[in-house]
Amino acid sequence: MNYTWHPTSAPVQTRYDDIWFINPQVGWGVNSAGQIVHTEDGGTTWTIQHTVDADTWLRCMSFTSPTDGWVGSITRRQRLFKTQDGKTWTDLTASLPPLPSAICGMSSPSKNVVFASGTQYPQREAGIMHTADGGQSWNSIPMAAHANLLIDTLFTDDSHGWVVGGRGGTSYDQLKPVILFTADGGKSWEDRLQNSGIDFPTGEWGWKIQFLNPQIGFVSLENDSAAAILKTQDGGQSWKRIEIKDPQKNVELEGVGFIDEKVGWVGGWGHGFVSGQPDGTTSGTTDGGETWFNANDVGHFLNRFRFTGARPIAGYASGATVYQCVASEPAVLARLAPAVRTPELDIAKAWDRLDVRTQVPDGAKHLTITVFDPRQTLVKVLAEEKPPRPGARTFSWNFKTDDGVDAGTGHFMYRIVVDGNATTGMVVRAARAAPDLLGDQVSKMITRYAPRAKRSHDDLTLPDANGRPVPLKPLYDKPLELMAALIRGGWIIPGEPDRSMFLVAIIGTGPMQSQLAQADVDLLSDWITAGAVVPAAMG
User: Fold this and answer.
1) What pTM was computed for the model?
2) Is 454 within 8 Å of 439 (Cβ atoms)?
3) Most buried one in 70, 118, 143, 243, CB count within 10 A?
4) CA–CA separation, 249 vs 283, rounded Å?
5) Which helix (H) or strand (E) holds 438?
6) Which of 461, 445, 462, 452 lies closest to 527, judged by CA?
7) What are the backbone dihedrals phi and psi of residue 153, each rounded to the nearest 5 degrees, phi first?
8) 118 - beta bridge partners?
9) What is the pLDDT of residues 218-259, one digit of tens each?
10) Which letter, b or e, does each residue of 123-132 get, where b requires 16 or more Cβ atoms within 10 Å of its Cβ?
């Protein structure tokens, strides 16, 4: 069987977080413009059914029929929407309990029954909300005893269900995965990873869950510096951690989708930044996860897979757009009409400033520009105004929040809304400053530490420009040469801080552990991530 993926003609937006297809032709999606979109012809044409406020981020959805569906949001003010005709949507937030304050995953196993989990923020209390009467009443299930963060939810019926996330602390770098199971509609929960014996790295948590059948299931693991999934073959009683080792060194997974026990794909943010690899990378396997290969032709930034169990349209995935999977024998594929392809947006790079450019139409009454960080949390309202004039406008942001805190690095998305019409864009901020400026800052840092550093390191050498070993100590007086030598010696790998032994093994866990201020460690990490540019003529 051959599987061919292609983009549908879904409205061009930066990100589609979730999709749901009742059958191979009829489905819905939510995107970064705050739109709920709908197709009735397998993605050939789409309509925009609803657009939420400019500060609301839609994350998840679940349907039980062509008319009954739910959409969840990670924005506290507008958390949940419902449709009873498959077309119009009602905001139910006013009737919800306060916990969870953000909905990251939801599952509606039958009409009028919904389980919604959150939050995706470890510093907030985790919880699940549940209704059995279509949202007229809700009960809130506190989950702090089980998890610090909850992401995805899957119920196979009104009593049996799963929720995945992480526990271990109030920041992402403290987390380890949890897979929680209930057999009584959420009254009690069991962590199926508690006695797994798996040595999970810290800073990893569960993101999406999929079951092919009652026995075989998968969970994607989000991790900023690695890629892995969990697999069960006994109905979730036990799990095995499988590393994703493909040539592009995929990381930060979100979506996982297996079409059968052998063939599957994983994707997510896969940040290549400046290392030459693409962003939003996807990996594939045809042997159940034993080996993996680059599968970027499937799509980018994948967050959700949904399979139809039909041919030739076998499934869909959401990411940079909505993608369709066609499954058939080669002879049948050759007879199918060419796929309608929507071009995906190029991702610009930004360092110390984000410039948002827009064209204000004549007669525009209201303009709003909002910016969301890599966790899709609103971090800045760049504009909210009645435009004084039509024409080209540019709005700039220095990546500082309103209280002056740096918003960090990663993929930032912005939303431009003019009189209810929304468009979105994305930039990737690999580091907190431009590469050459970071190099200059690292040079000055070396000069600052040089007097202390020269008191040791007597027997260490690094290669010069011709590959000959030279003593390390004199290089502290020539910081640019030292920076270049660390790269030549393989201690620093440009664009790969997690593979740079100087940062990981020397500073992180070795003889220089706790010797540098955290701000200096962050500077080194940023410099390496941004390409480890050596200023002046030393590059």
Assistant:
1) 0.91
2) no
3) 118
4) 9
5) helix 435-453
6) 445
7) -135, 135
8) 127
9) 999 999 889 999 999 999 999 999 999 999 889 999 999 999
10) ebbbbbbbbe
